[in-house]
Amino acid sequence: KQEVTQIPAALSVPEGENLVLNCSFTDSAIYNLQWFRQDPGKGLTSLLLIQSSQREQTSGRLNASLDKSSGRSTLYIAASQPGDSATYLCAVRPAYSGAGSYQLTFGKGTKLSVIP
Amino acid sequence: NAGVTQTPKFQVLKTGQSMTLQCAQDMNHNSMYWYRQDPGMGLRLIYYSASEGTTDKGEVPNGYNVSRLNKREFSLRLESAAPSQTSVYFCASSERGSSYEQYFGPGTRLTVT
Q: Most B CBs within 10 Å: which of A44, A45, A54, A108, as the mutation test of the B interface?
């Protein structure tokens, strides 16, 4: 059974710092990996999706990398801002088709606080 | 373009009462999902619909039923609510052409007393 782990569970950094959030998964047979942001009391917002054949994806100040063979992904946030404060979740989709293939497995998230 | 919408936003039920959570998407996606999010447990899939006319169980389907009303709408029903169903419920949708990237609604916060 796929397990997704995000460490640390919480992170506090001063504004302007570059930071890295980690995501690890136990089964490397994935179709893709998705990073989400969740603000308190809100739904999830998709940030980046990386296909299993890709090494990284970039969107603005965000860069996500994927090392499928080692079961790891990182989300790099450059020049952090107080508005980046949120919980960041990663989720993986299995590579096989058929029953269960639609089920994303989520990590429990890293709660980020950016201090002004 | 509203994306994924959910109603209601909040609901309080007594044990044994029933209710239906509504979800609609305007992105013409084929696949739709219902998740619950609980502290310490993360997000767990309840049911999904790969395409109009099909539904399948996810990780935690017990106590729930679903209906894919049409391509846009996917509802979740609690027939006899229990305190263990107190949670935040999210609906999501995706499309094969966009690599199944999932888009989420704002959630329904349900309390069962």
A: A44
